[in-house]
Design a protein that fits this description.
Blueprint (H helix, E strand, L loop, with lengths): L1 H17 L11 H5 L5 H19 L8 E3 L1 H12 L4 H8 L13 E3 H15 L1
Antiparallel strand pairs: 1-2
Helix pairs in contact: 4-6
Bound molecules: zinc ion (ZN).
Length: about 130
């Protein structure tokens, strides 16, 4: 087990150091950047996102992908659960993976997720 891990780390290191050409299907994205890729297309995608993010902030607006405080969303989820839904039900109705709703430890949630939960709670509880 340990040997396998060491070998994997070693091959990762070797790959990083020798930096072979990117596979053709690798297109830069902010998600890849956040996962640790530092190739030029990924850095460019992340920089473009940050430019949009700062621009939106400067105009007093928010981006759907940004993280916001999860507290109101957690309260809405609890109300939905008290009304008889399970996290799996809620996730399915929102088109999300169940894991996307377990953010209590992170304390922050994507604005898009917060909006979906808010809309569902309004629809079902009010
Ligand atoms: Zn990349």
């Amino acid at each position: 087990m340990l040997t396998v891990r060491v070998r994997r780390l070693d091959s990762t290191l070797t790959r990083t150091l020798s930096s072979p050409p990117m596979p053709v299907e690798h297109v830069g994205s902010r998600a890849s950047y956040q996962a640790g890729c530092r190739c030029l297309p990924c850095r460019a995608a992340s920089a473009a996102y940050m430019t949009r993010y700062r621009g939106a902030r400067a105009r007093g607006r928010r981006l759907l992908g940004q993280l916001v405080d999860a507290t109101p969303t957690m309260w809405r989820l609890r109300r939905l659960v008290r009304a008889g839904l399970t996290y799996a039900d809620i996730a399915r109705r929102l088109g999300l993976r169940t894991a996307a709703l377990h953010f209590a430890r992170r304390q922050r949630v994507r604005l898009s997720t917060a909006c979906r939960v808010h809309r569902l709670a309004r629809t079902l509880l009010e």
